[in-house]
Amino acid sequence: MGILYIIATPLGNLGDITLRALEILKSVDLVVCEDTRQSVKLLNHYSIARPLVSYFQHSKLSKIEYIAEQLARGKNIALVTDAGTPGISDPGGMLVSRLTSEWAGEKEIKIVPIPGPCAAIAALSICGFPTDKFNFMGFPPHKKGRETYFKKVAEADETVVFYESTHRILKAIEQLKLLMPERQIVVAREITKMFESIYRGTAEKILSILNGDKNNLKGEFVIVVKKYE
After folding, report:
1. Domain that holds residue 212
2. What is the mean pLDDT of residues 36-54?
3. Which of 20-29, 102-111, 137-146, 186-195 has the lowest average pLDDT?
4. For labeling, which of 32, 35, 164, 182 is most exposed (least CB within 10 Å)?
């Protein structure tokens, strides 16, 4: 039985990958990735040549069966996502769930974490809020359940961290302004990338920053909300 390595990859700066991750990527028989076009950039940067197979949110069941079959044949596989840690608000979690249940077989599949970058943890590390306990809430729903989601954020008794896309970041901050106008929040944009920006203050202050320059609305966002006190 082969080994499935869950490998965290850089959020943007390719220098953030660990030495151990590079060693594993060089040694595996197959790399399973969310988007082959993204992952090949990382592999090429470090002169790593390995077969790539895509696995994403809407992959068919046959793709999971194929991966399970390769593991059963003794192939070692690396699972990576476009950026950060696979399985954290990421389709890799479903793959691991299936492999450890339906396709486990008589001999349990060995799954090994190769830790590294995670956008939520990176944002928590610089927020300055209490982080002895925190609530990670992934992405807000696009439509149905969105209002309920933000009410839970407002009522949480620990620091909350969540992700939001460039298309809905203004709506998210506006919702926070409506529900918690005085609460301190931190918005981290494009973590580790060339135009990394950290915005601190109330929702109203951050809205003025985001609206002040259209470039401030581009990229990936992590929002950290200080716990209710």
Report:
1. 119-225
2. 95
3. 102-111
4. 182
How many domains does the chain fold into?
2
Tell me the C-alpha distance between 69 and 3, whole Å.
12
Query: Are residues 167 and 177 in contact, defined by beta-carbon separation less than 8 angstroms?
Result: no
Give the residue carrying structure tokens 């529900």. 179
- Alpha-helical runs (H) found in the chain: 19-27, 36-45, 61-72, 92-99, 119-127, 146-155, 169-179, 203-212
Cα–Cα dist 133/130, whole Å: 7
Q: Are residues 70 and 155 in the same domain?
A: no
- Structure tokens given for 2: 């082969």
Mean pLDDT is lowest, of 61-75, 147-161, 176-190, for: 61-75
Tell me: do 41 and 89 sit in the same domain.
yes
**Last residue of one domain, picked from the residues 66, 91, 114:** 114
> Domain of 40: which CATH number?
3.40.1010.10
Among the candidates 96, 114, 132, a domain finishes at: 114
The closest alpha carbon to 200, from 221, 167, 178, 223, belongs to 223
